[in-house]
Design brief:
Number of strands of chain A: 7
Number of helices of chain A: 3
Helix content of chain A: 10-25%
Strand order of the largest sheet of chain A: 1-2-5-4-3
Radius of gyration of chain C: 22 Å
Oligomer: heterotrimer
Strand order of the largest sheet of chain C: 1-2-3
Order of helices and strands of chain C: HEEEHHHHHEEHHHHHHEEEHHHH
Strand content of chain C: 5-15%
Structural class of chain A: alpha/beta
Number of helices of chain C: 16
Radius of gyration of chain A: 19 Å
Helix content of chain C: 40-55%
Largest sheet of chain A: 5 strands, mixed
Shape of chain A: globular
Structural class of chain C: alpha+beta
Chains: A alpha/beta, B mainly alpha, C alpha+beta
Distance between the termini of chain A: 57 Å
Strand content of chain A: 15-25%
Shape of chain C: globular
Chain lengths: ~190, ~475, ~375
């Protein structure tokens, strides 16, 4: 089964689905229009052989990253001449559509068909909340916790949505572009 | 001290073969005998340079530790170290020889201490009486003290020796070289002969830590309670014909009774440390040691039946002689019964010592160190002293029960002349090697598998063994 | 798990007063292979609740990548799975090359394959040794490290590093392999082949080892797929999913090799998949050395500071621990706009909280060891 064949099958079931305008290269990328669709789509994918939820993540589309989110000065280089700027600084690129939104990504694999389907969903950035896939795929458990921890996206129905990677005293969600590091007792 | 390979003693320059007078000068090589091959020259490894940065890369393929010391005998320090080790062994051997060969006069010494004249010792001269007339109780006390000291030193020196031996054996099993440097700063380091002694000094100087959560007195008492029964259990152990500290009629029972007490120390150590891992280790240890006491005891019942006594000397004597003048009449050579009893006793002995296939009380990867997690310094090392003492005890018991005690395996003159304590020690050391070999080869059981093994396999088969031994006694060994 | 006893069984004996014990397994524990902490609640020797706690080694590489250029990011990748860092290098480079549309040369591809397979051998040797230690057999560890040292020496000879290589670069590799190095590698392979049989006699078919691992920690194929396990953990359960066959990269389709697949998903099957994979790696390396193409080892086309056009790319490779993937998004700047790591260890570890319940304390170690995690990759 090729990507197009499977997409036709998918679209027959969910007519509102569309291919993403900017796909992840080489992979069938489907964009959902609302968060209510993710559960039926995931169920359909699971029933049609895509029974591995391989990856679950999200991207914060709000502008370039805030340099105050880092503990130390980036790219500290003692050999730079006085007054020189570091090589890397966070800078916006002209022409890229930055917007206050969270772009979620689910990636499903079918071992039999040798196919990967990537499902995208764009949600408003503040108070993002989407249905949890833990009842269908156990692998969503820790990956949703990770996404919650690093990006602050809530998953409704997750049995134990707590921090997983960052320590308890970390304030905020580090992978949000506007994250600002609050000094804690372990900083010098 | 240079590790560079060097020629030990250069071969004398090859004497040029005398040119045969008759040979034509045109073809001297054909007629001359082949010249001696030149001694192999040391060729340094070809240097390899990193192509990216031009730096020299050390040629690791030719510098394995075994090759660094390829010509170790050329180093004077190595010879000195070997001398030290040989000296230690010789000293130990001579001490053993003195004790062993003089023990036949022990009764005489005992009598002299009690006031009997020296007369029979000396053919010439006056009759001498020990200057102080001692009370019989004092005589017994002195005599017992001497024997206790000897047995105690057997345990202590065994720790010194067997730890070094275990380290070397395990190293060579694991394709390592083990202790190599300990000995002397100037290089008297034959196979790291001084490793255990120096480790002992280190352990003495280490801080003795008692955890805040520990029950102080029980914590301090536990190592003593582990090692004391072990030393006591050595009293009736047979080191050679007639060489026992205490000649007990019930020697076997005595040894098993005291060896079983150590488990209380293990449980105390586990409970008093105030650590959950220690607690688990202590409980596991209690369950294991108590369970393995049973097959261990029952496995030697056939031996006791054949020998008809619990006295170790009698058991040893019962194995004297040879079938057809060739095969020694050791209990291990009794068909089926002997081998089965030997294997069950060996397995149970390994389990009693908490060593690797059965080391669940101190399973490092599960319980950190089990019951001795919270011990340090000398308290910690006393646990190991006890462990190695139990290994030695098991080895001597195996040699006594199954390998004929002090009897020679070969019925021929040079072997039968070797004193019994030498054979005994040799067999015990062989058994100790088996202990080490098992430890460094096998993985660890799980707790329930361990229990299954003893209750469902070892114990039933030891009962079967007793039944077969009964048949032997009824029909064969009447 | 025939001897499984649950809390419910214990509660049916009201006269027996039992108490549950909470044990902290880690973060400093000999067999958690790093700073993993598992809060175990045990009833006797049986686990009634297990709560894995990770994050002690979290360094935020995904955040750090957002202010580094693509060349710098390769250095970050070394620090995830530090036991086998070559596939980490490779997967980032594949994603960045996909994003930038650069095609690598055949020689670079072959060298990447050789290095990744060598690293798989080194990583599985580490697993073999430490798994033996976990189950109480100390000797195989030193045998495994004898050979692992040789692999690391070969790496050091080629790229100067023994642990964090940074050898695979955007567009190719750091330096070309010299004939001397290829000869040494061939010698190592010849030396290594009989060693694999030695390992089997040492550990694989040891009766105690099989008793400890066969039938322990069984993960069925459905469970494995639901947990999205990958690598030998998935294949041990009988699912034939190997990225090298599923979506070949770097010319893996040109090599002849098999994918070892287990049957029942027990610890022994996972172990045996890894040991068998070493044989397949040996086959791949032999073929790759035999038909190593000539030519440049670095593709032209990468700028000193690459600025890929806005877009997204995902690349995944069969790393030593499973399906390692990288999702890269570019906004046209010099650094990745977003980098997400699909870390196999992290995802494989998640099944621990459910699978441990009902097991014995000793089996915790057997299961944890058989998953073969590296905490650097779990926490990233």
């Amino acid at each position: 089964m090729t990507q197009d064949e499977f997409f036709a099958k998918l679209q027959a079931k969910f007519p509102k689905l569309e291919k993403a305008a900017a796909p992840v290269k080489d992979y069938l990328t489907v964009r959902l229009s609302s968060k209510d669709q993710i559960e039926p789509v995931a169920q359909f994918l699971k029933d049609s052989g895509f029974d591995i939820l391989d990856m679950l993540t999200a991207t914060d589309l709000l502008g370039p990253v805030d340099m105050k989110g880092f503990i130390r000065q980036q790219n500290f280089n003692p050999f730079l001449p006085d007054g020189a700027t570091p090589e890397i600084e966070s800078a916006a690129t002209a022409g890229y559509p930055y917007r206050p939104a969270m772009d979620l990504l689910w990636s499903f694999i079918s071992v039999e068909n040798k196919l990967r389907v990537i499902v995208r969903l764009e949600q408003p950035r503040e108070g993002t909340s989407v249905p949890s896939l833990v009842p269908m795929f156990k692998s969503a458990d820790w990956q949703e916790r990770e996404t919650f921890d690093l990006l602050g996206i809530k998953f409704e129905g997750h049995p134990n949505l707590t921090k997983i990677l960052t320590p308890d005293f970390t304030v905020g969600h580090p992978l949000r572009k506007d994250y600002v590091h609050v000094k804690d007792r372990f900083d010098e | 001290m240079s590790d560079k390979p060097e020629e030990k003693k250069p071969e004398p320059a090859a004497v040029p073969a005398p040119a045969p007078a008759a040979a034509p000068a045109a073809a001297p090589a054909a007629a001359a005998p082949a010249p001696k091959p030149a001694p192999p020259k040391y060729v340094p490894p070809t240097p390899v340079f990193n192509r990216a940065n031009g730096r020299l890369i050390e040629d690791r393929f030719t510098t394995w530790p075994t090759q660094v010391f390829a010509n170790r005998w050329s180093r004077p320090g190595f010879q000195w170290g070997a001398g030290m080790l040989v000296g230690i062994f010789l000293g130990l051997g001579l001490t053993g020889f003195a004790i062993g060969e003089l023990s036949v006069w022990a009764a005489r010494v005992y009598a002299i201490l009690g006031g009997e004249p020296f007369k029979k010792f000396f053919l010439f001269g006056p009759t001498v009486v020990f200057p102080v007339k001692l009370a019989p109780l004092a005589v017994d006390a002195i005599w017992t003290a001497i024997k206790v000291l000897i047995v105690l030193h057997v345990v202590l020196i065994n720790g010194l020796w067997s730890i070094w031996w275990e380290r070397k054996i395990s190293a060579h099993i694991q394709s390592r070289v083990g202790p190599t440097y300990a000995g002397s700063p100037s290089g008297w380091n034959f196979h790291g002969w001084a490793q255990t002694a120096i480790d002992g000094i280190k352990l003495l100087l280490k801080e003795d830590i008692t955890p805040a959560a520990a029950d102080k007195w029980v914590h301090a008492l536990a190592p003593g309670l582990v090692v004391a029964p072990c030393i006591i259990a050595f009293a009736p152990v047979l080191f050679g014909d007639g060489m026992q500290a205490a000649n007990l009629d019930i020697g076997t029972l005595y040894i098993f009774a005291f060896a079983g007490i150590s488990v209380i120390g293990v449980v105390m150590a586990g409970w008093a440390s105030g650590n959950k891992y220690s607690l688990l280790g202590g409980l596991r240890g209690a369950a294991q040691i108590v369970s393995y006491e049973l097959p261990r005891g029952f496995s030697i019942v056939p031996v006791l039946m054949f020998a008809g006594s619990l006295d170790l000397q009698v058991i040893s004597n019962a194995q004297a002689g040879y079938w057809h003048g060739v095969i020694p009449r050791w209990f291990i050579f009794y068909p089926v019964v002997g081998q089965l009893a030997f294997v069950i006793f060996l397995i149970a002995s390994v389990a009693e010592t908490n060593r690797t296939p059965f080391d669940i009380p101190e399973a490092e990867s599960e319980l950190v160190s089990g019951f001795h997690t919270e011990y340090s310094g000398m308290k910690w090392s006393i646990f190991f002293l006890a462990e190695y003492a139990y290994v030695l005890l098991g080895s001597f018991l195996l040699a006594t029960f199954f390998l004929g005690g002090g009897a020679s395996p070969i019925n021929a003159v040079p072997f039968t002349l070797i004193p019994s304590w030498m054979w005994m020690l040799g067999k015990a050391m062989l058994m100790m090697f088996v202990f080490l070999w098992i430890r460094w080869t096998l993985p660890r059981f799980r707790v329930d598998q361990l229990m299954d093994f003893t209750w469902k396999f070892l114990l039933p088969w030891s009962f079967v063994n007793i039944a077969i031994a009964g048949l032997y006694l009824a029909f064969w060994l009447k | 798990m025939s001897n499984m006893m649950t809390a419910a069984d214990a509660s049916t004996m009201p006269e027996l007063k039992t108490d549950q014990l909470f044990i902290n397994l880690g973060p400093q524990h000999p067999s958690t292979h790093g700073v993993l902490r598992i809060g175990l609640t045990i009833e006797g020797e049986v686990i009634v609740k297990a709560v894995p706690d990770i994050g002690y080694l979290h360094r935020g590489t995904e955040k750090l990548a957002e202010v580094r250029n693509y060349h710098h990011c390769v250095v970050l990748t070394d620090r995830w799975d530090y036991v086998s860092a070559m596939p980490n290098n490779l997967v980032f480079c594949l994603a960045a090359e996909k994003l930038a549309g650069v095609k690598t040369t055949p020689r670079a591809d072959a060298l990447r394959v050789i290095m990744c397979e060598m690293n798989r051998i080194a990583s599985h040797l580490l697993f073999f040794g430490t798994y033996g230690i976990d189950l109480g057999a100390y000797t195989p560890f030193l045998y495994a490290f004898r050979e692992r040292e040789m692999v690391l020496d070969l790496f050091e000879m080629l790229c100067g590093a023994r642990l964090t290589y940074n050898y695979i670069r955007l567009g190719g590799v750091m330096v070309d392999a010299s004939p001397e190095w290829l000869k040494r590698t061939g010698e190592f392979i010849e030396y290594f082949k009989p060693r694999l049989d030695e390992y089997d006699t040492l550990l694989t078919y040891n009766p105690i080892f099989m008793a400890r691992t066969k039938g322990v920690g069984i993960v069925t194929a459905e469970e494995a797929k639901s947990w999205a396990l990958s690598g030998p953990n998935l294949r041990g359960s009988g699912v034939n999913y190997d990225v090298r066959k599923f979506a070949p990269y770097s010319g893996y389709e040109n090599y002849d090799f098999d994918v070892p697949v287990g049957t029942d998903g027990s610890c022994w099957d996972r172990y045996f998949c890894r040991v068998s994979e070493m044989r397949q790696s040996v086959r791949i390396i032999e073929q790759a050395i035999a038909k190593l193409p000539a030519g440049p080892f670095m593709a032209s086309g990468f700028a000193k500071v690459p600025k890929p056009v806005p877009g997204e790319a995902y690349a995944h490779v069969e790393a030593s621990r499973g399906d390692l993937g990288i999702y890269l998004a570019s906004d046209g700047g010099i650094s990745p706009f977003r980098m997400h790591v699909h870390a196999p260890s992290f995802i494989n570890l998640a099944m621990l909280q459910e699978k441990l319940v009902g097991m014995k304390v000793s089996d915790v170690i057997a299961l944890l060891g058989s998953i073969d995690i590296v905490l650097g990759e779990v926490d990233r």
